[in-house]
Amino acid sequence: MGVAQTKKALISLISIISLLSLVLVGTSATGADGGPVYVSVEGENVVATGEKWQYVVRAIGGPGTLAGGNFSYKAELVGSDITDSLVAPSSGVSSSGVFSINVTAPSVPQDMTLVVNVTSSTAFESDNAVKSFPIKVLAPVVIKVSVKNAGDFDVLGVPVSFSVDGTKLYETTVNVDSLSSKTVTYNWTDPEMSQGEHVVTVALDPGNKFVEFEAGGLVYTTTIYVGDPSFGTTDAMLGILFVLMVVFIVFVYTRPKKRRMR
Questions:
Q1: Where are the alpha helices (DSSP H) in 57-204?
Q2: What's the pTM?
Q3: Are 100 and 127 in contact (CB under 8 A)?
Q4: Which tops the pLDDT comparison, 190 or 260?
């Protein structure tokens, strides 16, 4: 083989090796970073002042998806007056990229933002993404029901439902020891709440499983007035003119009647 042919062969071999290196490096880089980092937040967008809610943060992508990788986060609240608010835990590490965060709303109504900064990393590289989750904090209409058990035995799982203007908003159950009472509270927060009259209905044991009444379960209905016509905006009404309604319901639990043996 002549000198010229040898040079051409070497140049061709070097070109092939260089091209192969580029392909391998490119493939390695694409697989190493795990793609972009995506972060999502699940939870309530509208909460009452002082309420505590749980939010779930999910992160995918980036180096944290590779073997030996993990995800970490830092979270904070941003708002005009959040001195008495709380994010707990405000940081954490997870191999799954799923985190649970408890947020306690401030005592002052406002628009605030839960900001979560997630880092996806291995020992050699890292990438991050920031997710902002808006939360509206409202002063609620507080509906309290005091349920009293005047019977001589404990009762469990008594259903209580709250409705406003014919729409059921909340349902829960309550356990009441004998000769004692239990308070059930519902914070009504609605950014679209209109001024004027609203009909609030509290239904106790709607299925008539625990309390004996000839007409069925106990339903309490009252009318409340929210706002004042002199206020031109809903924000002014929400921030200032909320009412506190306390409903006291006293009832007696009775033991199920025994059937006679035939």
A1: none
A2: 0.64
A3: no
A4: 190
